[in-house]
Every structure is written in C-alpha cells, then in structure tokens.
Design brief:
Helix content of chain A: 40-55%
CATH architecture of the largest domain in chain A: 3-Layer(aba) Sandwich
Largest sheet of chain B: 5 strands, mixed
Radius of gyration of chain B: 25 Å
CATH architecture of the largest domain in chain B: 3-Layer(aba) Sandwich
Oligomer: heterodimer
Number of strands of chain A: 4
Number of helices of chain B: 19
Structural class of chain A: alpha+beta
CATH class of the largest domain in chain B: Alpha Beta
CATH superfamily of the largest domain in chain B: Fe-only Hydrogenase (Larger Subunit), Chain L, domain 3
Shape of chain B: globular
Strand content of chain A: 5-15%
Number of helices of chain A: 8
Helix content of chain B: 25-40%
CATH topology of the largest domain in chain A: Glutaredoxin
Bound molecules: iron/sulfur cluster, FE2/S2 (inorganic) cluster
CATH superfamily of the largest domain in chain A: Glutaredoxin
Strand content of chain B: 5-15%
Number of domains of chain B: 4
CATH class of the largest domain in chain A: Alpha Beta
Order of helices and strands of chain A: HHHHHEHHEEEH
Radius of gyration of chain A: 19 Å
Strand order of the largest sheet of chain B: 2-1-5-3-4
CATH topology of the largest domain in chain B: Fe-only Hydrogenase (Larger Subunit), Chain L, domain 3
C-alpha cells in the first residue's frame, strides 16, 4: 500500500498533524517578532491542534526562539490552555460560592457517573471535557453550569442526562 | 539627586533608586528577602514593606522608586506587625525541618526570622507538594522553595539558558522546568548559578560527601584528591575567614588530615593544559595559514557547564572547541596511568576526588567521554562548599593548621595555573607560553598581565601582532592575533552567534560558564556578591604574582611528565588520555533522543 493511501482513508476531510503543524508554523512566522505575541500564538495553536502537548510546545518554543519553560509557564498559568486532548464540547460546572451552597457538588457527582470520568478529564469518546468553573455570573439562579458558550441555570440533576443527549 | 525623608532623617539620593536602596545608602536597614542587590527585583515576599505618607497601603520598598519629597517610615508598629505576619505566612507552607536541612545556619529565611523577632508560627496551612528532582549536578527540593524567583532571573537573564520558570498559578505555582521534566532531560547547563542565589535549601548541589567518606574508609582504595585553582581563594569564607584570604597551605594539610592518600593540585594539569591547548592552537593556525583545513576561532574547553551549553545550543559548532579535557579530568587520567604505574597500583583500586568550584563538573565526570579503559578519570566531585562541610564534620581546626605543600609529581604549578580560576586567566596563561614559544621573547605586558582581558566585564578582547618570530614560526610573521574572553553564558551566546554567522573576527576565545569565571562558580561559598567576587579575583592574581614560576612551560614536573610518559604535546598518549570529543545534544535534546 502506498503511504498516500495509508494517510487518508478513514478521516477524509480531517487535517493531518503535519498540515496542522504547517499552519502553526505560518502563524508563528507572522506573529514572531511582535511583543507579547506568545499568548496569541498559543491560542491559535490550540484552536488548530485542539490542545497543547509537549511536542507542540517544543515546536512553538523552537520556532519562536523562546525557552520551553517559558512557553509551558504561560500555558499552565492560564486555565483556558490545555495540555491534554480536549473533548468536542466543554462542560463547566460552577463551583462558585452560590452554586456550591445550592447543589453544585451534586451536579458534579452525577456528571461523573454519567460521563464515567472525573473532573479535569475528557470522556473516552472525546465528546466532553469536564471541568469546574468559579462563578459564571448566574448566582441568582444557582446551581449553574455551561456547555461551551451556553449557560444552564437552576440545573436539576435529574435533567442532566437529557441535557447532554442534545450534544 | 532627589530629597526625601526616611525615619525623620533628610536624605539625598540619585534619581531612579528604590526606597530600599535609598535607605541602604543612608545606613538604614529594611528587612528584605526576595530582593538581590544588582540582580533581582520582583516584589514577591513583601517583607520590605514601609509606610509612605499619603499612600493608603504599605509599599514594597524594593520595588517603589524614591521620589522627591517622599516621607518614609521603615520602622513602625504597623510595618513590624505586617512583616511578621507575612513571614509567618511563608512559614505556614514551609517544612521547617531546619535542624536537618542543608542550609541550617546559612539560610536567609531562617536568618530573617531572627531579624524580624518572630517567636511564633500562628498559621498552619496546607503544604504545597514539593517534588525532589535529583540530577547529576543539581538537586531541587521544591518543598523548601519560597518563590522568590531569584533562580529564574539568574537562569534566564544572567545565563540566558531559561531552564527554570514559574509553572502553574496561585497556590499551585512551582518554579520548575517545562511540564515538570526532570532537570537531566532538559538543556540545563548545570552551571549551578541558581544554587548560589537560592536563599533557602531548595537548590543545591547533588551531594557526594558520603561517597567520598566511603572511599576514604575503604582500606583497599588509594584515594587521590586534587583542588582547583579557585578553591584556595574562596573556601576560607566557609571556614571563618574574610573574603579574599588565600589558604592554600592549610588546605593541603586539611586534606591530609581528612585521610586522602595523595594530595595533588589541579594547577599542575592547568599548566599541562596550556602546553596541550597552546600546541593545538598553533597547529590550527598553521594549518589555516598554510592552506590546510582548520576550524578557527578555537575556544577553550575547561568549563563543563559551557561545554554542555554549546552541545545544546550550538550543536553544529562543536569543532570550535579545543579537544583538551578539563584540567581536573586530565589529572584524573594521569593519576590512573602515569602515577598508578609509578606506585604500582591497579587503576581500578584508585579513587580520584576533585574539589571544584563547580557543579557542572559533577556531571562531567559521569560522561562516557571522560573514561579510559572503562575506568572513569575522576570518581567523585566535591564543591568548595562540600569540602568545607567535611572539614567541619571532621572537627578540623582549620585556622590553626600548619601550611603544607601539594604532593609531587602532580602538585607543582606556576602562577599561570592559578589564574585559570578567573575570567581571562586561561587566555593570559596561554599567551604567556605561546608568545614565548613563537618569538623566544617574554610576553610584553607589565607583570605578564594582559590588561585588556583582566576584569569582570562580560566580553573583553585583545590583539597583538607577531614580529620576528623564531624560524619554526615564520608563517606567523606580521600576523595580528585577535583573542576574546567572556564569562557567563550570555556573553558566550553573543560570541557563538558571531561564529554561526561567519562574522567572528577572533582566532582564540576563552569561555568560562560562570560570570567572573570559577571564582564565582556554582559550587563556591554563598553568597557571591560583586564585592566578594572582586576580592577572590584579587587574591588569585596575588597568588600568581607571589610564585617564582609564572609560566606553564617552566613547570619542571610537566617537562618530566613529557620526558617520562607523554613524549610530546598532542602526541599519541596525550590524545588517548588528555583529549576528548563532544556530543551533539540540541536545545530539546533532539539529537540524543533519536
Ligand atoms: S530552607 Fe531554611 S528555613 Fe527551610 S528548613 Fe532549611 S534551614 Fe530551615
Ligand atoms: S544550573 Fe544553570 S542552567 Fe541549570 S537551572 Fe541552574 S542556572 Fe539554569
Ligand atoms: S528555588 Fe530557591 S531561588 Fe528559586 S524561587 Fe525557590 S527559593 Fe527562590
Ligand atoms: S456562584 Fe455559580 S454562578 Fe456565581
Ligand atoms: S524584598 Fe521587597 S518584596 Fe521581597
């Protein structure tokens, strides 16, 4: 079998890793010499690659001529960067004070059961990444959670399954 | 100048200084912990807080510039209470096992408790998880880290390596490598400069003391010790002397009292290095001038932190390095061949200990390149600090020891060898010999010091034109030789980038990995301030000038070594024992992972 045939048969329109790295290299070329552009580069890289594993961090450090420890320092400082593969959707259950008091913990327990993974992880089918958040501004209608950009208020633990079913 | 009032006293200070500096210039002490004069200002500990009239909150005096008309109070009930509370907060996340901590009685955190008059530790918080990371040279115990970030400044700004940075945030913050990789898997140069500035027991050399005691206790081992040039002008600081004292004679006695069988001097092989490296240099120049192949500039190779740095950062430029092993490895190799033959001992029964101002040398001796016939040239490396500890542990009354000499045949040295311990010294030593070899005349500098390359500036250069050389060196007639000297890896990077671009104007470059050279190596006594560095430097030049022999080629034991054993510089035996090659690593170790 030729290597061409090997590389593309199952995941038809998905970009290969090589293509993704190529796009990231182009982005770095563009941003490289701008002051403070590391965060932007990391953002764009994560949106292309999905997450920022060590190999990609090395690629970025090398192309931006920055110490690897600085790159990883920035990534681990901001919670929106992830070094683990992410699911298609992100569930964030609020554990701010109001939500905590009004049953946030119960949502977490239930979701752990439904998803089969604990907080901070991604489901095996790569559908959901499960995280907690600190106050998402819906305190009056606690407990609250978000799936991607959509906020769910006064969530009833018994409704969780039907909410997730829509994704 | 600006005028302000500190504690009711009117003072004038130059513009741009901070309140802390203004106070210091006027002999007012403000407690401070994370600040490091001339090196690091970050404002993380906040112990330096003062009251400033008109400001709502207490101000961190190490960060806030002194301004005209400011009214500052450094010593009020409010500042004292705040400092104590802040200090207790640091303690709430600290192991507090001082009695068994390596920094007991030399710890800046401990000392600060005393200065602040802290008598209680009211908060008992959750302890951040500290991981212990042991590499061949450096041990990091992050449970002791107080997040002052001095190591980050030193590793990134001063050494320009950037192995350490803050990772994570908030309570989870740790100072570490990318993704918490072990130090021995990243591009750490093992220079140890971070261990010099760490105020607590978080960064230190990887301990070799017990290994050395074990060897001394082993009846079947012949234990050989050698000391580097920079030890004799620094170890006194850990044994009750003021900086700048030379304690060579007592050091030799102390080593015998510790139980070493032979007390040799790395200075001897520093002299030998000059012959080997000088010959190598002349051969390269000759080849270059007579149409042959030769890589120039040639760069010195005595500093293993520098070597590791090049292997990571400029793996394509390794040909520029002299092939000479570092002097202490040469001595180890000769002890286990030349000397072992003389005293009829199997090299396997010999244990060589090097006392070095350097943490990188601990790693260096574990390199496969530093072995002959499967036997390592050197078995263990102690830092200056570790040897001082052993002397204390053995109960030796160092101050009252008699002076003694090093043992021969590996103990005699010239003043040229002493200055190996300071930036510019290797180059000067080489020029003293090479110039004389080529022209038959003495190097034309006052007291033999090549003044343009003496001192603590980052990059220094000198040039001179060869006139009327001896017959054998006619090819050098009228040639202007250009040399450069740098210490610290930032300067090295500048010179290497020149080489990489093909723009280096030099023929010969000396690089030492630590700023100032071995006198401020990563294994030297803490602290190493600019004043202390200057005193050690002056002491080294005093030691040089006090010697009868000033030039390496006048060392008669070196001559004898060639006659009896090596035969000729850069000859077959030399190549086998005294020269080496290097390993391409790459910034991310990409060359060696494959
Ligand atoms: S680092 Fe200092 S304060 Fe902490 S345990 Fe060691 S000696 Fe004590
Ligand atoms: S030993 Fe040198 S290179 Fe390594 S972390 Fe410390 S300062 Fe950085
Ligand atoms: S390791 Fe030492 S120097 Fe570095 S931040 Fe921690 S306490 Fe400071
Ligand atoms: S605490 Fe949950 S939304 Fe504010
Ligand atoms: S000394 Fe000023 S904040 Fe630490």
């Amino acid at each position: 079998m030729s290597s061409e045939a090997l590389s593309c048969q199952c995941c038809c329109d998905e970009e290969s890793d090589q293509q993704k790295y190529q796009r990231i290299a182009e982005i770095i070329e563009k941003y490289k010499n701008r002051e403070g552009s590391l965060i932007q580069v990391l953002h764009l890289s994560q949106s292309i690659y999905g997450y920022l594993p060590l190999e990609l961090q090395i690629f970025i450090a090398d192309h931006m001529d920055k110490p690897l420890s600085e790159v990883s320092g920035v990534i681990t400082f901001y919670s929106f960067f992830s070094t683990q593969p992410r699911g298609k959707h992100t569930i964030r259950v609020c554990m701010g004070t109001a939500c905590y008091v009004r049953g946030g913990k119960k949502l977490i327990d239930r979701l752990e059961g439904i998803l089969g993974v604990s907080v901070g992880s991604t489901t095996e089918d790569k559908k959901f990444t499960f995280e907690i958040a600190r106050c998402i501004g819906a305190c009056g209608l606690a407990p609250a959670m978000m799936i991607d950009d959509v906020v769910f208020k006064q969530v009833n633990p018994d409704k969780l399954e039907s909410i997730l079913a829509k994704y | 100048m600006i005028n302000l009032t500190i504690n009711g006293k009117s003072v004038s200070v130059p513009e741009g200084v901070t309140i802390l500096e203004a106070a210091k210039q006027n002999n007012i002490y403000i407690p401070n912990l994370c600040y490091l004069e001339g090196v690091h200002k970050f404002g993380s500990c906040r112990l330096c807080v003062v009251e400033v009239e008109g400001a709502r909150t207490l101000q961190a005096s190490c960060m806030v510039p002194a301004r005209e008309g400011m009214v500052v109070r450094t010593n009020t009930e409010k500042t004292r209470k705040a400092r104590k509370a802040l200090y207790e907060l640091i303690l709430s996340d600290h192991p507090k096992d001082c009695l068994s901590c390596e920094r007991n009685r030399s710890c800046e955190l401990q000392e600060m408790g005393d200065i602040l008059g802290v008598t209680e530790a009211r908060y008992n918080g959750e302890k951040s998880k500290g991981r212990i990371d042991i590499s061949p040279s450096i041990t990091r115990d992050m449970s002791k880290c107080i997040l002052c970030r001095r190591c980050i400044t030193v590793c990134n700004q001063i050494q320009n390596v950037g192995v350490l940075n803050a990772q994570n945030r908030g309570f989870e913050t740790v100072i570490g490598t990318a993704m918490d990789l072990p130090l021995n898997t990243v591009n750490c140069a093992y220079c140890g400069q971070c261990t010099i500035v760490c105020p607590v027991g978080a960064l230190k050399e990887t301990d070799a003391i017990q290994d050395v005691w074990n060897a001394i206790n082993d009846k079947n081992k012949r234990v050989v010790v050698q000391v580097a040039p920079a030890i004799r002008v620094a170890i006194g600081e850990d044994l009750g002397y003021e900086p700048g004292n030379i304690v060579t004679g007592k050091l030799a006695t102390a080593l015998r009292e510790l139980g070493f069988d032979d007390v040799f001097d790395t200075n001897f092989t520093a002299d030998l290095t000059i012959i080997e490296e000088g010959t190598e240099f002349l051969t390269r120049v000759k080849n270059a001038l007579t149409g042959g192949q030769a890589t120039l500039p040639m760069i010195t190779s005595c500093s293993p932190g520098w070597i590791k740095y090049v292997e990571h950062s400029f793996p394509e430029k390794l040909d520029h390095l002299s092939t000479c092993k570092s002097p202490h490895t040469m001595l180890g190799a000769l002890a286990k061949s030349y000397y072992a033959e003389k005293i009829k001992i199997d090299p396997k029964d010999m244990y060589v200990v090097s006392v070095m101002p350097c943490t990188a040398k601990k790693y260096e001796v574990s390199r496969p390149e530093m072995q002959n016939n499967g036997v390592p040239n050197v078995d263990a490396v102690l830092t200056t600090r570790e040897l001082a500890k052993m002397i204390k542990e053995a109960g030796i009354d160092f101050r009252n020891l008699d002076d003694a000499q090093f043992d021969n045949p590996l103990g005699l040295s010239s003043g040229a060898a002493d200055i190996f311990g300071v930036t510019g010294g290797v180059m000067e030593a080489a020029l003293r010999t090479v110039y004389e070899l080529v022209t038959g005349r003495q190097l034309p500098f006052d007291k033999l010091h090549v003044t343009p390359i003496v001192g603590l500036q980052q990059i220094k250069e000198a040039e001179f034109t060869i006139e009327n050389p001896l017959e054998a060196y006619k090819f050098l007639d009228g040639v202007t030789v250009k040399v450069a000297v740098t210490s610290g890896l930032s300067g090295a990077k500048v010179l290497l980038e020149q080489i990489a671009k093909g723009e280096s104007p030099y023929h010969f470059i000396e690089v030492m990995g630590c700023p100032g050279g071995c006198i401020s190596g990563g294994g030297q006594p803490r602290p190493t301030t600019p004043e202390i560095r200057q005193k050690r430097l002056e002491a080294i030049y005093r030691e040089d000038e006090g010697k009868e022999l000033r030039k390496s080629h006048e060392n008669k034991y070196v001559t004898k070594l060639y006659e009896e054993f090596l035969k000729e510089p850069n000859g077959h035996k030399s190549h086998e024992l005294l020269h080496t090659h290097y390993t391409k690593r790459g910034k991310f170790n990409e060359y060696i992972i494959k």
